[in-house]
Design a protein that fits this description.
Layout lengths: L1 H43 L8 E5 L4 H12 L3 E6 L2 H11 L5 E5 L5 H15 L4 E4 L5 E2 L7 H29 L2 E6 L12 H21 L4 E8 L1 E3 L7 E2 L3 H13 L4 E3 H14 L3 E4 L1 H12 L1 H14 L10 E2 L14 H9 L12
Parallel strand pairs: 1-2, 1-4, 2-3, 4-6, 5-9, 6-7, 7-11, 8-10
Antiparallel strand pairs: 9-12
Length: 361
């Protein structure tokens, strides 16, 4: 009997193992099928960029130029708008040989100029498939140093300019029932950051309009993505404006913008934006610090407000100075030290200085 029991037990163990193995195989197969199906469905909604015409405002330097490089890598044809013809020509030279690039001087705050520039882009490259509203301006300083003109300028560049460019390209997108619009907002479009009030006012306006626009045009198969970057190493602080104790303002801003962990590489940010554009994401928050700050502000607004009040106490006071200075005019030994080396590299790569370095795509 004992031998019989042992034989039965062995058969049961073997049978159980076979059943278990079969179950695992079936489960793994089902999981693989689900993942493959999800991936296939997701890919079917991907907006292929090869051969598409992409219009980027503020495209001569900074994030705009980084985005141009990434779109060209995808095989798109790129048109860049910016105010400065010399910067545009440098950008064109940096992108030469990488694909179809058209540059056009245009003040996107002027509706007539925008409509004329869009007509020229269509003549050169064809109908616009992707619009990236990236043009921007930045003035840093305490509230008491800001004038009404700073607020008007922020609203002009962050709200009215995207409204003009979108109005110029959207009818064609709707008629063709396809298109992508990417609006580059900021963490400052979710959280009112001290010493950046005009900037935040403009970005909040852009964010609200952009999110509403997505809902309105979805029926026409046009997708709108709102992007909320945190600090990015684009090299832009040297071209921003600083008021009040402008040297101290430039120092804290540049150090925050240059330090890894607090800021993100511009090319990495650009790649994330392209993916969000391709898949038609509603919004994209870039960098871990920005995600933490935005989620904390949404879940614990009181605590977030207290933290911002503390931060404001640590920022420079206005002092007696009322003039406005560019970051490049506000340097100190600290801003020229090794601490800002990454920002200097980004500035040279992204056409923020007059002698940018060539970049291989």
């Amino acid at each position: 009997m004992s031998n019989l029991k042992r034989s039965v037990a062995r058969k049961l163990l073997v049978g159980g193992a076979l059943v278990g193995a079969t179950g695992l195989a079936v489960g793994a197969g089902a999981a693989f099928a689900l993942i493959s199906g999800y991936w296939g469905i997701r890919q079917s909604f991907r907006y292929r960029l090869a051969g598409r015409v992409v219009l980027i405002t503020g495209g001569s330097r900074g994030l705009g130029l980084a985005l141009a490089r990434q779109f060209l890598r995808r095989g798109a044809k790129v048109a860049l708008l910016a105010r400065d013809p010399e910067e545009l020509e440098r950008a064109r030279q940096l992108l030469a040989g990488k694909g179809a690039v058209f540059v056009r001087a245009c003040d996107v705050r002027n509706q007539a100029q925008v409509e004329e520039a869009v007509r020229d882009v269509r003549q050169q490259l064809g109908d616009i498939d992707v619009l990236v509203n990236n043009a921007g301006t930045l003035t840093v300083g305490p509230m008491d140093t800001m004038t009404l003109e700073e607020y008007r300028e922020a609203l002009n560049i962050f709200f009215w300019a995207p409204l003009y460019t979108t109005g110029a390209v959207l009818p064609s997108m709707r008629q063709r029932r396809q298109g992508r619009i990417v609006n580059i907002s900021s963490i400052g479009g979710k959280i009112a950051v001290p010493h950046l009030l005009p900037y935040c006012a403009g970005k909040f306006a852009l964010s609200g309009w952009s999110e509403g626009l997505r809902v309105e045009v979805a029926k026409d198969n046009v997708s709108v993505t709102t992007v909320y970057p945190g600090l990015m190493r684009t090299g832009s602080p040297r071209n921003a404006d600083f008021k009040g104790n402008y040297r101290a303002e430039y120092t804290w801003f540049l150090l925050s913008d240059a330090l890894p962990g607090l800021s993100i590489n511009a090319d990495r940010a650009a790649r994330q934006i392209l993916l969000a554009c391709e898949y038609g994401k509603s919004q994209l928050i870039i960098s871990l610090p920005a995600k933490i700050a935005i989620k904390t502000h949404a879940l614990l607004p009181g605590a977030a407000s207290l933290a911002l009040r503390v931060a404001n106490q640590l920022l420079p006071h206005a002092g007696q100075a009322t003039e406005k200075k560019k970051g490049g005019q506000s340097t100190t030994p600290l801003t020229e030290s090794w601490l800002t080396a990454l920002d200097q590299q980004a500035a040279e790569k992204n056409n923020q200085v007059s002698n940018p370095i060539p970049v291989t795509l």
